[in-house]
Structure formats: structure tokens, C-alpha cells
Amino acid sequence: MNFRQHVLSPAVLALAALLSADPAQVSIAAAPPPAVGTEPMPSLAPMIERVTPAVVNIATEGHVEIELNPLFNDPFFRRFFNIPDRPLQRKTQSLGSGVIIDAQRGLVVTNNHVIANADQIRVKLRDGRVLEAKMVGTDPETDVAVIKIPAKDLTALPIADSDKLRVGDFVVAIGNPFGLGQTVTSGIISALARSGLGIGEYEDYIQTDASINPGNSGGALVNLRGELVGINTAIFSQSGGNIGIGFAIPANIVRQVVEQLAQYGRVKRGMLGVQLQDLNADLAQAFGIGDTKAAVVVAVEAGSPAEKAGLQPGDVVIDVNGKHVDSATEARNQFGLLPAGEKIRLDILRNGKPQQINAELTERSEQSEGVRDERLAGATVGDIDSDSPLYGKVEGVLIVDVERNSRAWRNGLRAGDVITSVNRRPVTSVKELLAAVGPGKKQLVVGIRRGNSAALFVLK
Length: 460
What we know:
Blueprint: H1 10-20, H2 45-51, E1 55-65, H3 75-80, E2 89-102, E3 107-111, H4 112-115, E4 118-124, E5 130-139, E6 144-148, E7 170-175, E8 183-194, E9 205-208, E10 220-222, E11 228-235, E12 246-250, H5 251-264, E13 270-271, E14 274-278, H6 281-287, E15 295-300, H7 305-309, E16 316-320, E17 323-324, H8 328-336, E18 343-350, E19 353-360, E20 362-363, E21 379-383, E22 397-402, H9 407-410, E23 418-422, E24 425-426, H10 430-436, E25 444-450, E26 453-459
Antiparallel strand pairs: 1-2, 1-4, 2-3, 3-6, 4-5, 5-6, 7-8, 7-10, 8-9, 9-12, 10-11, 11-12, 13-20, 14-15, 15-16, 16-17, 16-18, 18-19, 21-22, 22-23, 23-24, 23-25, 25-26
């Protein structure tokens, strides 16, 4: 026998009580309570109506090179299996979101991974218009990109100071999940300064339980005033759907990156020239420090701004530009996201005594001159310096920038890739790369590290 559990509403229970009571003691009001129909219902609708025109849907089309087994590089195998000499490619499509941040210039910010490999970018506005977008610049290390659309009748979002966010603040995520069209979800900020997730090279994420699903990438995370506090970028999920842990790039990081992308087309990231590690309990005890939340200078590059400013191994970095740092990652984020030429102030402890160090950041070393191999045409490369989040994790040569539709771009190289080998020969510096791509070699089999994965590319 099946039993059903019935849940009676309060109204039904009240009516039953009235029917069973003494009629002489029952009085029934003829009018509804005064609050019904007169008190305004709390709603986010006014803010949402004001904000949603600034959030756009992004659709891209592109192509990627199909990776073949190295055996198919042999002309005999290519003829036997009827494989054309040109690289095999397949078309790609992706959907994502973006945020208009400058209505006068038509600038839209999104995630780099939304528009990566895109040959064509279309932006759909809230009013139904579909516009062709042009690339302005990308920064794979922070996963931020800027595109441009015709600046006519656009609405932009104001950008808030994300340093003022607190755990428990209410936020709203707006985007295009699963390609369904613009959707709004709400929640709170559940954590701040999340790092070590393996999502990007610079990690300082806002964590939220506002639903973020595939397609929300590049969309807006706003506060209840309708101000942009972050760009939705990733979810933590084993199934691919939202489980209440989403991550957004803080608006202050987005602002810094966008300013440089709009001005230079790339980020001219500053370099201090130090290698850092977290201050652990053993080091704190050895240094006579009570607080274990800081960063320790492990090494200082010769001739770097750090050396010129007087930093020494063993110095404990407490604050950068007046902001406390809890770890080596936070310290690198503080000066690694600043432009070259910026002056910074470090509050340190040396032999237990507080000191202040002032330094001026220089631009990271890049050596595009001399890379004259046609197969790498359009790529700018540089050594991985000590300020890079990749330092000590991978050996190779960093691809700093790749011109769209250049030979390097068509060969599948992208900014942020790390060249680890050429024709099975490891390369750890620009000098070694230049020697490995010398003349007389018809094709190059290049080992690439991209994010957490590795692959071989054939450059022709």
C-alpha cells in the first residue's frame, strides 16, 4: 500500500479551526489584512532592468589545427593515407558573455578563453542588435580580453572598487548560460582572494554561490547598486554544472588589465626581480615573527629593480603599497599586475625590524628581435623571469604576444603558450630557442605547454 504525505497550508488549517470552533466565539473579518496589496514587494528588478543592457552575448567562430601522430609527418605516410600537405584544421564555435565598460568607445570586456582562436566575433545586445566585433587585446595570464563594437546607443556598467568587497555581500551574476540567452542569478560572496586553483597564472578570485554555468564566462558579477565587481570566469564542478562554487576576476584587476589592453593591445607587465615563497611557521619562528601570513624573499635578480632598491634574501614582505599580503602569490599579484614604470612601496621586516623599500618596476624582458624564422613570424617571445607565476614550475620560452592571422597564429600558437622543446630538443631560454630554429630546417615540431596541458605543434 502506498501512502502519501499531505502538507496542509496554513489557510486550510485556519479554516478547519474555524469550522470546529464554537460559532458564538468566532468572528470573521470581511476584508483582507491591510498590508496585502499596499506594501511594495522587495525586488531586484529595477536594478536588473538598468544593468542588463550592458551585458552582451558573444558568439565566435574560428579554427584550430588538428594534431596528428608524428608518423604522419613522413611524406610516405601522408601519401599512403591521402593526407594533404597543408595543416588539417577544424572549425570551432563558442558561446559566452561580455560586459560593456565604455559606451563611448564601444569597449567590451570578456574572458580570453571565450574569444581564443576566434576568426569572427559577433556580439548580441539586449535590444536584439547583432554587431561584428574587433579584437583590441588579450591577456591570457589573467584570462581577460577586450573587444570593440560600434559605439552607438550603448549602455556601460560602472566599475566598483572590488577591494571593498566582504564575504557575505549580496551579488548578482548575469550571463548567457548554456546558450539560453541572458539569465540572472543571485547569491552572496562566499570567499575572497582565492588562488592556487590552476585556472590562470594570476589568481585572486572572488568566490560566489550565485549560479555560474557554461556560457556565463565573461559575464558580469554586480553588487546590489548595479556596479561591476567582477567578471565571471570559472566554476568548480565535476559534472560541468553549477554546484554553488563559482569564481570571478575582481573588478580592480580587470580595470588594470583593460587600461593597458586598450592603450597598447597587450599588457606591459612590470617586473620587480624577486623570487618569493610563503612564510611558514618554521620560518616565522626562526625570524622571530608572530604573524605567519606574509612572503619571504628567496632570491634577488642581479641588476633588477629589487636589487637596486636594496631588497635582500630573507626579507619578509608584509605590505605592498599599503595592502597586506598573506602569501607569495598575493605579493606577486600586487606588483605583477602593475604596469612597467610604476613605483611601489614594500613594507618589510629585516632581522625582525620594520623597513620600507621603494622600487620602480621595469618591463619584463622580451626579445622579438632576432626571431626571424618565418614559421614564428608574428610571435613575440621572452624568458620566464622570477616575477612570473610560471617561474620554477615550467622551463621554456614564454610567448608574450601573437599577431592575429600571422604565420605563428595560423600555426596555432597563442599568447601565454610556453615553448618547451623544438624538434625534441628542450629549450629554456630565448637564446636556446633561436639556436634551435636555425636555418635549413623545413619544419619544426614544437612542444607547447598551454595551461595545464601539453601538446606538439608542427610549424611550417
